[in-house]
């Protein structure tokens, strides 16, 4: 059964990200469990890819490290299997069209169902070509999560209307990475989304401080943090577990505090 809805059952969700295989597959399992222990409601797992066009330098370097360690799609599915032996936290893949199609769509989404992957985000899948993956993903109980950028209102409405699982709202144009300031009118975007769908809207790209997380949680259904966590892993490698736990716990507290206001 798809678990994504559980992430949003008790107020704004705190969603975290890491790259599979960075620094090792075993540590990826450990760090996912540490994030859950710290309060993460859903974890996005990046499948390493040689050309991650939506990612900034921090996550690009994590991809390089993981690929240098010979992390393959099969490795990533093994990571999910090991997490599922100990946790039922919602898990979502972040990947690109090329790995999915090279693996084979049917084979890929069948493996998602078998291992317990709840959703997938494919940044380079054009909205107009969504059906290329949507039908097979749905057949295997995997939510194809759409990304909504700060573009025209008509475009936002069109994408939001067919959302599944949750909508990934991009806070700023450009690639992933921590930002000192988010200038997009997120309330206007989330209000527009809510006018056409009841699917939760979670905001990502650039969020890295408790203050930013609190501000986003006040207007959105979820807060997504990736690069800040990947930075911790890149710096501390095999010893990152306690620091990931502390950071996630701090950020989750900020999200929870905003929800209580």
TrEMBL record:
Coiled coil: none annotated. InterPro entries: Aldolase_TIM, RibuloseP-bd_barrel, Trp_synthase_alpha_AS, Trp_synthase_suA. GO terms for molecular function: tryptophan synthase activity. It comes from the Bacteria. GO terms for cellular component: cytosol. The active site is at 44 (proton acceptor), 55 (proton acceptor). Keywords: Amino-acid biosynthesis, Aromatic amino acid biosynthesis, Lyase, Tryptophan biosynthesis. Its EC number is 4.2.1.20. Pathway: Amino-acid biosynthesis; L-tryptophan biosynthesis; L-tryptophan from chorismate: step 5/5. It catalyses: (1S,2R)-1-C-(indol-3-yl)glycerol 3-phosphate + L-serine = D-glyceraldehyde 3-phosphate + L-tryptophan + H2O. The alpha subunit is responsible for the aldol cleavage of indoleglycerol phosphate to indole and glyceraldehyde 3-phosphate. Tetramer of two alpha and two beta chains. This is Tryptophan synthase alpha chain.
